């Protein structure tokens, strides 16, 4: 545990960068029967940009961007440079009463000095000003990669509060988890649920820590507290559900006594050696890596089999393509033959029929016919019927001199054609 030990040796040479806390009640000592910081006490921790201060504002009954409660800013950089302890009315609702919220600086945004000054500030504030708390709320943005900053924070969390006891007091808050219709629809499309996200986070923490059980979690969307979101029943339902679950959890969780820097170093010295302190964690990581490698090898082998199957299928398809090409060539020849036969047919139909005078109604008969027909089509002068021998598209034209109003219709198979 050389790296971790180095971090805490550094703490001894770093002066406290200052503490920030606010009293809304009469102050008193930690041993006072009515403490200055009422219970339940909730400490917000997490990487920079996870939304801790925004959440702290909301839990205090303030708007998400109200810097008069806890300072917030846009982007992933941390606005909170010092640990801030505030006595608040939970959600601004007197039915809950007073509680204590602590907002801590974000891990992973401390420049070349590393997290040493941040850790010093947190230890000083929690140990010497707060003393204990019920819940450490680990704020994680699920859309961000579980990278080195989060991994380091988990390791430092165990060192700060004691690996044997800290996990009994930790809960997960998944930040920036909206419950708008669009956000829910998008998660449904990808198969991501609150249950799967919480399971995923727990698994990742277990891989790099001594955690051996699933941590409880809440999905409080801070932006649901804006006035314009109050009419969205779905958002308000989940906001009330998860803020109530957090309150109930804080009330039910006993207090965790915070360690001083000296306590932390003493606990580290109890390990068999500095490296032994990390042996279990490293072994857990290696076991997981080995498991992942075995899974990947099995998947690679399975993919190889599928590739071989696909290769055989491609070869079979190539053979079928060759066979189809021969059939296509054969059909092309037949089409050419048919085209030649069609061209050889010289069909021409152009016939006219004449009636000099008709003074009554009924079928028009004709006095004479003219024109040519090479396929045997005929017009009967006695019946007025035109008998077609070759199917096709024909143009029929009526022409007459009339006195008054005359209707002329074409009949096909004894049925009048309405469009004539």
What does this structure look like?
The protein is α/β, with parallel strands linked by helices. The chain contains nine helices and 15 strands. The protein has helices at 2-11, 52-59, 116-130, 148-161, 181-190, 194-207, 233-252, 261-269, 276-344; strands at 20-22, 41-45, 84-89, 98-103, 132-133, 135-141, 170-175, 217-218, 256-257, 349-354, 368-373, 378-379, 386-387, 411-412, 415-416. Residues 1-33, 73-79 and 272-276 have low confidence and may be disordered.
Quick overview of this protein structure:
The chain is of the alpha/beta class. It has helices at residues 2-11, 52-59, 116-130, 148-161, 181-190, 194-207, 233-252, 261-269, 276-344; strands spanning 20-22, 41-45, 84-89, 98-103, 132-133, 135-141, 170-175, 217-218, 256-257, 349-354, 368-373, 378-379, 386-387, 411-412, 415-416.
Features of the shown structure:
40% helix; 420 residues; elongated; 9 helices; disordered N terminus; alpha/beta; 7-stranded mixed sheet
- In total, the number of strands is 15
Biggest sheet, in brief? Answer: 7 strands, mixed
As a percent range, the share of strand residues is 5-15%
Helicity level, as a percent range? Answer: 40-55%
- Please report the distance between the alpha carbons of the first and last residues: 100 Å
């Amino acid at each position: 545990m050389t790296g971790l030990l180095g971090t805490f040796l550094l703490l001894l040479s770093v002066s406290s960068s200052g503490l920030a806390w606010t009293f809304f009640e009469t102050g008193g000592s930690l041993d006072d029967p009515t403490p200055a910081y009422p219970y339940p006490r909730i400490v917000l921790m997490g990487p920079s940009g996870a939304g801790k201060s925004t959440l702290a504002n909301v839990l205090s009954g303030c708007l998400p961007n109200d810097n008069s409660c806890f300072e917030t800013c846009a982007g992933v950089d941390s606005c909170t440079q010092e640990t801030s302890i505030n006595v608040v009315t939970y959600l601004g609702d007197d039915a809950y009463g007073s509680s204590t919220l602590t907002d801590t600086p974000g891990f992973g945004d401390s420049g070349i000095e590393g997290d040493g000054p941040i850790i010093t500030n947190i230890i000083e504030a929690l140990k010497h000003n707060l003393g204990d708390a019920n819940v450490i709320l680990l704020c994680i943005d699920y859309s961000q990669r579980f990278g080195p900053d989060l991994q380091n924070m988990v390791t430092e969390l165990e060192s700060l509060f004691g690996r044997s006891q800290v996990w009994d007091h930790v809960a997960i808050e998944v930040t920036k988890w909206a419950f708008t219709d669009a956000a829910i629809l998008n998660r449904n499309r990808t198969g991501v649920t609150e249950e799967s996200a919480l399971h995923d986070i727990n698994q990742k923490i277990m891989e790099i820590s001594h955690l051996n059980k699933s941590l409880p979690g809440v999905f409080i969307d801070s932006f649901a507290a804006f006035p314009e979101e109050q009419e969205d029943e779905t958002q308000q339902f989940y906001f009330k559900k998860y803020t109530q679950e957090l309150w109930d959890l804080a009330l039910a969780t006993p207090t965790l006594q915070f360690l001083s820097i000296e306590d932390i170093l003493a606990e580290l010295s109890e390990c068999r050696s500095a490296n032994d302190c990390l042996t279990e964690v490293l072994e857990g990581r290696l076991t997981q890596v080995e498991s992942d490698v075995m899974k990947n090898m099995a998947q690679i082998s399975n993919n190889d089999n599928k590739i071989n199957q696909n290769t055989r299928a491609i070869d079979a398809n190539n053979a079928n393509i060759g066979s189809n090409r021969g059939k296509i060539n054969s059909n092309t020849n037949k089409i050419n033959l048919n085209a030649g036969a069609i061209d050889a047919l010289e069909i021409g139909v152009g016939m006219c029929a004449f009636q000099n005078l008709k003074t009554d109604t009924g079928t028009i008969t004709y006095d004479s016919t003219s024109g040519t027909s090479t396929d045997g089509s005929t017009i009967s002068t006695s019946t007025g019927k035109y008998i077609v021998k070759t199917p096709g598209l024909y143009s029929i034209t009526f022409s007459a001199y009339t006195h008054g109003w005359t209707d002329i219709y074409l009949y096909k198979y004894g049925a009048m054609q309405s469009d004539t």
